[in-house]
Amino acid sequence: QEQIQFKETWVIENDKTMRLTITPIDASQKNLFRFQAIYSGGNRWTLSNDRKRVSEKISDELAEKWFFFKKPEALAQALISHKIISSIPAPQGPKKIKTGLDFKVESEKYVRLSRAQGVVNYNFTDLEQTGFGSLWIEQDQFVIRKLKWPSQAIMSADDYKIYAKNLHLAENQNIQWEQSNAQIHVSSVNLKATNASNSFQLTSLDQSPSFEGFKSDDSKKLAEEFFKRFR
Q1: Do 45 and 55 contact (CB within 8 A), yes or no?
Q2: What beta strand segments (E) does 78-179 contain?
């Protein structure tokens, strides 16, 4: 199968507001293989071939947003909406302990310790539900190491680097689904992007998606599936 290589340029404000531009590694395919989208208000906006802005609901398997939750509450809500846990358990008040016999450690309903990517993680999942996904967050660094969507597609994240403003980002990511595999390598990060707010204006879209530069129909379908599901 043909190996597909391309460069992604992300402009990210938070897990809800992002912009993605794709360019091929092979410059000769510049006008044959391209993708550009703005993620805002729960929708993914692109430009049609007749230069009209069109929107569709952001895919439940959009991978990039999982690295950019800024508030614990937003992550908790994502765990529910993406069918990883069923609800947020109500906090339990302190219990009175009279003797050592009254003391016991209560297990959490949706979390347990589990190894993934060679480290110990908090594994979030709902074992009582069928068709739910699972999330592994490293115990020591509290970064995402693995995510399994309800579809059984899996994203793993390795080689974290720490940037300014305490941003932890995996340098190497891998997405596996069915018989396909995508490897993502972060080559550079710029936390001082100029005119970033302008990047999220819908009027700034100037390229319509195109997947015509592939040598085979199978490769074209694979690229279309990757961008439809995970981007």
Answers
A1: yes
A2: 111-116, 119-124, 134-138, 144-148, 154-163, 167-177
Contact between 32 and 212 (Cβ < 8 Å): yes
Q: Give every CB contact of residue 7 below 8 A, 6+ residues apart in sequence.
A: 22, 23, 24, 25
pLDDT at 169: 96
Cα four-point dihedral sign 59, 61, 65, 66:
positive
| Region class of 26: left (phi > 0), else alpha (psi between -120 and 50), else beta | beta
End-to-end Cα separation, the chain, in angstroms: 21
d(CA 14, CA 71): 10
- Helix, strand or coil, per DSSP, at residue 146: strand
- 57-99 pLDDT, tens digit each: 999 999 999 999 989 899 999 999 999 999 976 665 665 666 6
Exposure of 99 by Cβ count < 10 A (0-12 exposed, 13-18 middle, 19+ buried)? exposed
Structure-derived torsion over alpha carbons of residues 143, 40, 22, 219, reported in degrees to the nearest 10: 90
Q: Considering only CA atoms, which of 202, 209, 214 is closest in space to residue 227?
A: 209
